[in-house]
Design brief:
This protein is of the alpha/beta class. The chain has a domain at 16-169 and 191-220 and 269-278: Rossmann fold (3-Layer(aba) Sandwich). The protein contains ten helices and nine strands. The strands form two sheets. The chain has a seven-stranded mixed sheet with strand order 3-2-1-4-5-9-6, sandwiched between helices. Strands 7-8 form a two-stranded antiparallel ribbon. Helix 1 crosses helix 8.
Length: 279
């Protein structure tokens, strides 16, 4: 499924609520091919009890629920969770068994309910919205805690960037890392190593059991949409604190220029890798 080009004309990119809305309306859908590939491979359906770590504004949960799965999700961003609730409760009530929260996995696993049969951590920026200085360490802790609420042998899906030479977004994300460096902020992105996901699984006490690659192009209706979408990821927040948002926007625009097409759209081919590990 190719991401739909979206045109946006919002007035204030700096407001957190606007950022969350930009994530939901522009950026989150770029990972739809990844969600579909994983759900197809693992045959997600009515027997699935899914826990999503970093569920964002709930698109991946909605897709799983459409297949009949029972879904729960956690995310550090309360605004994204509000949008997830809007998506999942069109009649004012969350579907039976669905729970969303900002805490650990235990906050969405009600006592006495069946254990989860699938855990996903799709965010390739490794919880870019985390407020901790070590998002990867935070993810390891979340995975370890999630495993305690899952059935033995449950698949845990981790996702990350493919090789930098196959990810057009690499140049844009290097802007974030470079601008954040002067004051010692932790870079929210670096080129993915071949064994990064396997190492992450190992640290969380999980056993690797298969992997795959998926093309997830970033397609935007115009440069404004591209800027709004990428800034909504949280990957550029440390850079904005180290410099200022105007500088980040200027350098990000320059990094995106090679992908600006004659019709004004921005098209960035990317490849993502996912790992299936077992509890």
């Amino acid at each position: 499924m190719t991401p739909t080009l979206v045109r946006r004309h919002p007035p204030s990119a700096t407001q957190p609520t606007a950022r969350a809305r930009d994530w939901a309306e522009i950026q989150e859908r770029m990972l739809v091919p990844l969600y579909e590939a994983v759900y197809d491979r693992l045959e997600v359906g009515p027997a699935t009890r899914l826990l999503s770590l970093g569920c964002g504004s709930g698109l991946a949960l909605l897709m799983a629920a459409a297949r009949g799965a029972r879904v729960c999700g956690i995310d550090p961003d309360a605004r994204r969770l509000d949008l997830a609730r809007e998506r999942l409760q069109p009649r004012g009530e969350l579907p039976g068994g669905t729970r969303l929260g900002r805490g650990g996995p235990e906050t969405v696993h009600a006592p006495g309910t069946p254990a989860f049969t699938l855990v996903t951590a799709f965010d390739p920026l490794h919880c870019a919205g985390s407020t901790t200085r070590s998002p990867v360490r935070s993810l390891v802790r979340a995975l370890t805690r999630a495993a305690a609420h899952a059935e033995r042998g449950t698949p845990v899906v981790l996702a990350g960037w493919g090789p930098p030479e196959r990810c057009a977004a690499s140049g844009a994300l290097r802007v974030a890392a470079r601008l954040a460096d002067p004051v010692g902020n932790p870079a929210r992105w670096r080129p993915s190593g071949r064994d990064d996901l396997e190492n992450l699984a190992h640290h969380a006490g999980l056993r690797p059991d298969g992997s795959g690659r998926v093309a997830c192009p970033y397609g935007y209706a115009d440069m404004d949409s591209a800027l709004r979408g990428l800034l909504s990821t949280g990957a550029f927040d440390a850079a904005a604190r180290a410099t200022d948002e105007e500088q980040v926007t200027k350098e990000l625009t320059e990094a995106l220029h090679p992908y600006l097409r004659g019709d004004g759209t921005v098209w960035m081919p990317n490849v993502f890798r996912y790992l299936i590990a077992r509890t």
